[in-house]
Specification:
The protein has 175 residues and is an alpha+beta fold. The chain has 6 helices and 5 strands, in the order αβαβαβαββαα. The chain has 2 domains: 125 residues, Alpha-Beta Plaits; 46 residues. Helix 2 runs antiparallel to helix 4. This is Large ribosomal subunit protein uL10.
Length: 175
């Protein structure tokens, strides 16, 4: 059954709204996947905070116009499922990578991050991006390291003096 104009408008508005708040997007070919496999993808994606939708390419082009994902326009050909990472940039990569390992028919064709279009082969790099909490903890570790080194260096001087005095005392007692 063909979509009515109102349904098409709703789809474009929904995808555009998601694209405005998304951090990254993946476009993958789903030809040959079963309904059960697509349902499994949607369930995994929902758990990870990823929006997944099969959209006609013409509607997707309209929805993505004026967003960071407008760079995907030229690559929107063939049957594609679009996935948008809502929580962090790497979430969509992790979901797509794990699903692609299980289902060979699922072929990632394009990735968009920060207004740049990347090839599907860059998926592992996107999947390895840290989550927000991991990035904050890494930043804190980097910020803490110089202070910790300074404290241990300052603490080393009195410790070294105490060890030297202890060695001198032991030498006098032995003599």
């Amino acid at each position: 059954m063909a979509l009515t104009f109102a349904q098409k408008e709703r789809i474009v508005a929904e995808v555009a709204e998601v694209a405005q708040t998304a951090h990254s997007a993946v476009g993958a070919e789903y030809r040959g996947l079963t309904v059960e496999a697509m349902t499994k993808l949607r369930v995994e994606a929902r758990k990870a905070g990823v929006y997944v939708r099969v959209v006609k390419n013409t509607l997707a082009k309209r929805a993505l116009a004026g967003t960071d994902f407008a760079c995907m326009d030229e690559a929107l050909t063939g049957p594609l499922v679009l996935a948008f990472g809502q929580s962090d940039p790497g979430s969509v990569g992790r979901v797509a990578e794990s699903f692609a390992k299980e289902h060979k028919e699922f072929q990632v064709r394009m990735i968009a991050v920060g207004g740049q279009l990347l090839d599907g082969s860059e998926l592992s790099k996107l999947a390895k991006m840290p989550t927000y909490d991991e990035a904050i903890s890494q930043l804190m570790a980097v910020m803490k390291a110089p202070v910790q080194k300074l404290a241990s260096t300052l603490n080393e001087v009195p410790s070294k003096l105490a060890r030297t005095l202890s060695a001198v005392r032991d030498a006098k007692e032995a003599a």
